[in-house]
Amino acid sequence: MLPDGRILCAGGNATTSNALIGDPHHGDQHKLDLYSPPYLFTLSGQPAPRPTIVSAPRRAAFGERIVVTQSGNGSASRMTLVRPGAVTHGFDENQRFIELAFHYDFTNASGERVHHVTLPADSAVAPPGEYMLFVLNKAGTPSIARWLRINNRNGQTMPPSAITDLTKSCSDGVTLDLQWSPPAADAGAAIGAPAAEYELRYSTTVPLTDGNFTTAGTLVAGLDEPGDPLASNPDRRVGITLGNLAQPKTYRFRIRSRNYSSGSGVWSALSNELVFTQHDEDCGGAGGGGGGFYDGGFTANRTGRTVALRRPGGGSTDTSFVENTLLPVIRLGSMATDRVRLPNGPKWEGATGRVRLSRAGTLGTEFEGVQLVAVDHATEDEVFVRGGEFVAGTVEPVVSVHHADGRDLTASLASGEGFEGRDGDTLYVDVQHHEPGTLVLSSSKSQLVKFPDVTGIRISTETSSGWVEIGHHNPRKRVSDEAFAAPALDHVRLIFMGEHKLEGVARLVPGGGVRVQHVAPTSVTHSQWGDVTSMVASGEGLPLQGGESAYAEFPYSEAPVDTVRDWYLEVTGSHFQGGGAAIAARMSGADEATPTRFALAPGSPNPFHGSTRLAFELPVRAKVRLEVFDVTGRRVATPVDASYAAGRPSVEWARVGADGRPVAAGVFLCRMTAGEFRAERRLVLVK
Question: Where are the annotated coiled coils located (predicted)?
């Protein structure tokens, strides 16, 4: 077979010595036949359009995961390796035809389809040497092949690029989710490919360095790349869930990766160091209640000030809903009122504005009140929430901001870079305003812990009797601001109680008054239960569990002449643990004894040591399968595989695996399947 998919057949014979002079066949005979198979043509006999391999590596190692980009003539249906022919007398002693495992990952900016391809790991299947790599489209037409040499090493001499964005995405007090962008396996490669392996280590005492990294603690040894991501996809991040972390305790994590250059590979430099204090948190996505609203983007920072405030705004026509945090960090069952700015107001459709409320995570949120607040003010003023009121004025820059360790953060805050604070960081703000006043903070990056754990930023001002705390600021997921009244604003101290980003700090110079108008919703639609307008209007509340949402619609009204209108969403509510069955019965008016939908409850207890109870709800008789998987995706147990009548069955899982042996401590995923219904819960087994 030739690289273009045609078949070459060649041969010949030596003629006898008494061949006639002048015979056109005098001399050795050389014959060559070139066959073009039907897969190279359309039904009408025209050459079939081929896919094109834009890029592929020239050399690779056994078991390596490579990147192949393809353009033109449809998507790839197959990828194959063909060993070049070495045939004599009808026997090909070098014959190899290998189907490759691959998947499409994304389309790059040039319109080329990027694929992730796994090469055979066994040299008995694919002996070392040269291969033709083909990509076939859905019609079965092959590309022009690329030559690929497979060996026990791929010849890479450069280490993978270092990971620079190791971050914590979520923590629930016992487990921890870490994320990072995958590096290219070769720092010099034009197109990145997955690293062969990661090594993640931690310390609870000293910073991790090249000198102590290999002797530091490890929660995951020889971590293969989760999800087989591609380094060439800028939008793809990967991560891992870790368990058995103590809290409250400060952890320091760093990670490195190796490539396929040899059996042991070449390791990258160490990543950035991730330092945080483990709290009892809620992995709730957008936050406490999870509020969504129409967001047109952010404007640039104000200029000409020592320290600027980064405020939402702008004129984007994006019609999507963007989530921000509602009701952050309140005690379970405690009622609170929260007001969040809607940068472009609700999502207006004609004379109707829409706001989406949503809930993520393991907790639920009950909204006792939902309304819009229209705040009209003079054009030269800006509006902020201060306690339970709205205040207007202009912002004045502070003089300087310094870290307790001496670092001057004034310029970085003024440039819009902000300050990424960690638990225990302390900042001193020089305002030089000796009279009572109002301080404004702009922040982002919420850290949602469960009561009584506390995060946020503690705010104190210096008085003649010492430092006096004037407020506690809880940042939201996205940039937002809050104002605080102070008896004096000469010097201010900010103490970080968690991982948050300070976007800006300023003093509010009082301006004109504000006109406040509360607007009730004309309709509220629950994602599961439909129209719940009357329930909200009567004060019964709007309950949302993880994965549920509600759309509230409001009427449009004009702002008075010569004023500017800011829109806020005001909600009153509380968080609760679980409660799915009771909510379903209440929403539908049904008896609580009969479930109205399929559901999988959290394990009880969770985390657990000896055993945990797995409960589920069935509105009708159904075949139920409960499976438990470890963090690598391997099924370790099947506690339930049977039919059940409608009701609320439960089973006890005593940490026994499929092989009858006790399962080791770790983080697991419990998956429930009942017909088309599917749900998952995380389980944590501790020692």
Answer: none
**Topology classification of domain 1-152:** Immunoglobulin-like (2.60.40)
**CATH architecture group of domain 167-278:** Sandwich (2.60)
Given this model, what pLDDT does residue 188 score? 61
pLDDT of residue 235: 52
Tell me how far apart the alpha carbons of residues 338 and 374 are, in angstroms, rounded to a whole number: 15
Question: What pLDDT score does 337 carry?
Answer: 92
DSSP secondary structure letters along 260-275: SSSSS--BPPP-PPEE
> In 154-273, where do the E strands start and end?
167-171, 176-180, 197-203, 217-223, 238-242, 249-258
Range in 37-46, 352-361, 381-390 the model is least confident about: 352-361
**In this structure, CATH architecture of domain 599-685:** Sandwich (2.60)
Q: How far is CA 97 from CA 100, 339, 376, 600, 647, in A?
A: 10, 65, 73, 47, 54
Q: Classify the phi-psi angles of 39: left when phi > 0, otherwise alpha if psi is within -120 to 50, otherwise beta.
A: alpha
Query: Is residue 672 scored above 70 in pLDDT?
Result: yes
Taking residue 529's Cβ as centre, other Cβ atoms within 10 Å add up to 19
CATH 2.60.40.10 domain range(s) in the chain: 1-152, 167-278
- pTM here is 0.55
Alpha carbons 436 and 485: distance in angstroms, whole number: 8
pLDDT value at residue 300: 27
The CATH code of domain 392-510 reads 2.60.120.260
Neighbours of 670 (CB within 10 A): 24
d(C-alpha 304, C-alpha 394), whole Å:
14
**For 582, which DSSP code?**
H
